[in-house]
Structures are given as structure tokens and as C-alpha cells.
Amino acid sequence: MSEEKNILEVSHLKQYFTVKQGFKKKTLKAVDDISFAIKPGETLGLVGESGCGKTTVGRTLLRLYEPTAGKITFNGEVLFDSGEEYDENDKIILDANGNPQKHKSVSKNMLPYRKEMQMVFQDPYSSLDPRMTVEDIIGEPLDVHHLYKSKEERRKKILDLMELVGLNAEHAMRYAHEFSGGQRQRIGIARALAVNPKFIVCDEAVSALDVSIQAQVINMFEELQDKLGVAYLFIAHDLLVVQHISDRIAVMYLGKMMEIADADELNNNPIHPYTLSLLSAVPIPDPETARHSKRIVLEGDVPSPLNMPSGCPFRTRCRYATEQCAKEMPQLKDRGNGHFVACHNR
Amino acid sequence: MSEDTNVLLDVENLHTSFFTENGEVKAVNGISFKLEKGKTLGIVGESGSGKSVTAYSIMQILAETGRVTEGKVLFKGDNILEYSESEMQKFRGEKISIIFQDPMTSLNPVFTVGYQLEEAVLLHTNKTKAEAKARAIEMLTLVGVNEPESRVKQYPHELSGGMRQRVMIAMALCCEPDVLIADEPTTALDVTIQAQILELMQDLQKKLGMAIIMVTHDLGVIASMCDEILVMYGGRVCERGTADAIFYEPAHEYTKGLLASIPRKDNMNEKLVPIGGTPINLLNMPKGCAFCPRCKNAMKVCLEKQPDEYWVGEDHLASCWMNIKDLYESQEGVH
Predict the structure, then answer these.
(1) Where is the signal peptide (chain A) (predicted)?
(2) Per the CB < 8 Å rule, is B195 touching A267?
(3) What's the total number of domains in chain A?
(4) ipTM above 0.90, yes or no
(5) How much is the pLDDT for B255?
(6) What are the tens digits of pLDDT across the range B149-177?
(7) Residue B139 to chain A, least CA–CA distance (Å)
(8) Is B194 near chain A, with CB under 8 Å?
(9) CATH of residue A80
């Protein structure tokens, strides 16, 4: 990983929310101590069940939420750093009073960086302003960042973008409601691409689409990556889609990172018990395999993130759980070939 | 297909339309199928293909603007479309039950789970309240809800999505119907919970012997659950056959396109082959085959005439001109 510079590095990222329960205030640890990196032009898939914090990760990266703690480095520049220090074993360093030892914290104004980092949202119906024409929707980021000199240039840029994502130029003056789901998603993607970003967070970007349209949009994501060299954080709950589009895949459970590996490696050699059951739970569109495969059916539901089990959050549903799992959260350790797993027992 | 004594549900040439401000929307356009005892029939299609409307037409729970305009739905020989509303009320739940996609909105939030289960039992049987309560607890145990005695006192919002779907299944099955219609039963659920629910449905089918109609857009769910599959597009059946026939020898251009466009284990590193274009507008149906505007092999005849269903193998029918191309060309001498 070291020889190529990462476009995005995240270390010890935490995002807590305060939730009121009656008179009591509780902390919801949506993202708890997550570290990963994305290389330029790479797709990192992020999977997990609903409520595991995968969307929060995407939003926190773009600072749509202010992170509780951690460090976000984009293209070599530190965008946010809460200042905690960690030793070589990734344990937090405490000072004499038992408080975390801190260096100076950083929190940069994001506006200039929004040009480099963009987002495509899940719902193509609610993420486009119904009172704006397509031209204005795609043109808005250009306006915000003053990326044109004349009206003609703005229009040309917009039409180029529309062509890039496969929309007709004559659609420019239409409103969002006049388009189908797949076309709306293309508008959302064109808007994200308008500022020529190096990194795009795709939050369930194909989940709301029908299968035949989904394939069109997945292919478009891949073609745009080949053409423009943009890196994706591809967040989705559909494992087959993620496996198809991603170079590497990260698996989250209740705010914690469980496993990161190359897509093929994760597919052929999953290690974490959660990944195993997640993979085996995916219904395979092939009757022969379906007849012979044995699902590892997990007992029970995901625990409430307000009431997290101690230690490893997966232990309540895990076949391999031991006493040690209840005591401490295993660290994400390299098992070779960039395959990181957080599990005591496997 | 085998002798008719096993046939529970026989749908013949069903047409359902919605009468909207913009005109008549023909959501279902002549669907026929037979469902046998203990079998699972899968209906697969994209949004707007008419798969849910087919299910709602059978149950007669269409929205106000919708009406079955033609066809028969025979349940053990009786045309249930001729039933009065009160006969239908008796029929629903007792003979055929339905579970819906969204367990969050299909349970009543102001009544306890137990009350809603008992209500179904009391409506359809002569059981006393105490017996109904016992039945509710028995059903919850059957669908794998832990601590059923305390669960019956809880309200739907206190349960998780998977638990709610289990309650829905318990409610649908508490009068031991012959047919269970499952309309996208796992779409709103996470994969691990989806696996639990699918496993549960298969178990219950073995135990209770009901037939299932599985309506879904997920080819994975279809592959693992169904004996027979209907592929729908634009309100019509474009292909039907056994799971193996549909997945390994697809004969309709739409089915082929659908299978090529989904990510699978064996095409991970290849490009997907999407179906071009967008799904059809039901207000503006083409004269010929509904799929032909998106079909890359469309011929002249496809634009003009809707093909009938032709046998393409044992227990395997498709309505696509491509399969009878030679026959057609020899007759008409057209391209």
C-alpha cells in the first residue's frame, strides 16, 4: 500500500450521536474507531446490514456530519484531526491524568475540498430539487465553485456532462419529475462529476433501481472510473453488486470494521464469522447452487446500537464466541495480502 | 403438468386495469397459471410488470380505481371473482392469505400483536377468546418468535423488522390457508434476516403443506425457493417453466437480458450486459410484444403482433418470436 499514495486515509474515525430517551441522554456510537484507506482510481465497497453505520461513514468522510474523533486525510492534506495520539499497537496514548494525550486539532473549511469529493445519493427521487431544471441541477456545483467564465462555457460543460452520463442534450430544460429512476440517478451522477472530483461516495446509488437499469448504472460507474480515474466508496447492502464493482471490500457490523480484503479474496476466502454468514445468506441466482449450498443462518437480530454488547459487537450472534470476545474488541489485523480481519478466534 | 385434482388455484386469462385520469392503465394483460398443492410458484418481474397487481387481483384487494376486466380465478373449481364482498372476507385468510413487502406498515400500530393475531382466528373460526389466544401463542412459537407469551402483549413498534415479518407470516397462516401469497416478503429486510425468513417459509411449507406464490424482483430469492417460475413484463407472462429451465435455458429475450444483467459469482470480473432503454409506459403499450422497444433482436413481426406462448421444452413455454423464427420465416417470407 505504501508505494502508491492514498487519495483518502481515515484513521480511528468515530461518529457518536446523542439520543434522548425520555429524560436520559444516550450516546449512539454509529461509527466506532474505523480506519481504512482508498487509493486513486480504486473502488472500495462498504457492506453491512441496516444500522451498521455504513452511510454514516460516507457522510462523515465528506464532513456532512462533524466527526466526534479521528483523522481524515485527503490527497495528503489533513482535513480533520481531533488530535488523539495512538501508539504502534493502535492503542490510544493516555497522559498522566488518564486523559488522551493530544496534539493540535485540525478542522479545515470544506468548501474548497468539495470540488474534489462528491456524493451520489440513494434515492434519485428525493435528492433532486423538483423546482430546478436539469441544467440548473448539474450547473449548481459549477456556480458554487465558479468553474466557468461565460454562460456559453457553463452550458457547454453541462451538455458535455450530460453526454458523459448518457442523457440527451434536449433534456437539459426538463424537470426531474419528467425522468425515470435510472435517468434521475444519471442526473445525480452528472451533478457529482460536474466539479471533476477525485473521489465520490456512492451511497446505495443503485439500490432503488430495477435490475435491468441497475446494470446500466453499474457499467456507467465502471466506465467513468476508467475514463476519469475517480475513486469510489461504494456503499450498498447488495453483496453481489458490491462484489461486482469493487476492488476491495470492507465489512461493517454495528459501527465496527470486521474485515477488509480484495474483492476476490473476500469472496473466496472470507475469514470473519460475520462475513461468512453474510456471504452465505445472499440468495444466489442459480438454482443448482441454491439447492446444494447450505446457508449459515444467523440467530436473532442485530442488537440495538444504543445497547451494544461489550467487547466484540457480533459475539451475541457468533458461533465461535468465547469469553475473550465479551471482554475486548479484537483489533483489525493483517492476515497477509492486505486481508484484514478483526476476530479473536478465526 | 399433472392431473387436475391437485390444482388449487387456476387463473385464466386475467386482465386487470386501473382507470386513471390519464386513461386506462392495463396493468395485467391476460395472465394464466395453475398452482398445485404444496408447490411454490415464483412470479418475477421489474416494477410495473404487473406482478403485485396479479396477486392483489386474486385477493381482490385492488385500489379503488382498479378492476378485473376479464378472466377467471378458480379456487378448487369456484370462480372467486364472482364472490360477494362478505364471501370474500370469509375466503381471505382462510383459504388464501397474503403477506406484504413492508412489515412496518402492514401491521396496525395501535393494537397489540396478540390482538391482531386473535382477531384473525376469531373471525374465521368458532374458537373462544382463550382458545384464540392459545392459538396466537402457538403460531408465534411456530414462526420462531422467542418468548411468545410476552410478545403477544407488545405493539408492532416494539419489534424489529424480521420479527414483524414473522408476526405477519403467523397471522397469514393462523387459519391454515391452502395458498400463501408472499408479495416481496423479504425486500425490506437485511440479507441475514432474509435468509431466516426464507428458511422459515420453506420449513412451514413442509410442515403445513400450503402452496406459495412468491412475488419478487429478486432472481436470487426465486432461484432458491421456487418449483415453477413466471417471468412477467408489461403485464404479460413472457416465459414460464421450471427453475432450471428459466435459469439455464432462457428462451425469451427479456429473460436472457435479465440474467445477463445481474451480478453473479461467475461474472464478477466481466462487464454486465444491461438491457437498454427504460421499462415501458403502461399507458402507451406497443401493439406487438411489450419488450420489443428494448429488445436488441427485435424483428418486424415483433412490432406488429404479440406472440402466443410456444413450447420450447418440457414444462417450458415462452412467448417470443425468436423461438419460432424459422417457422415464421418459412410461412411469411419476411425478414
Answers:
(1) none
(2) no
(3) 1
(4) no
(5) 93
(6) 999 999 998 888 888 988 999 999 988 89
(7) 18
(8) yes
(9) 3.40.50.300
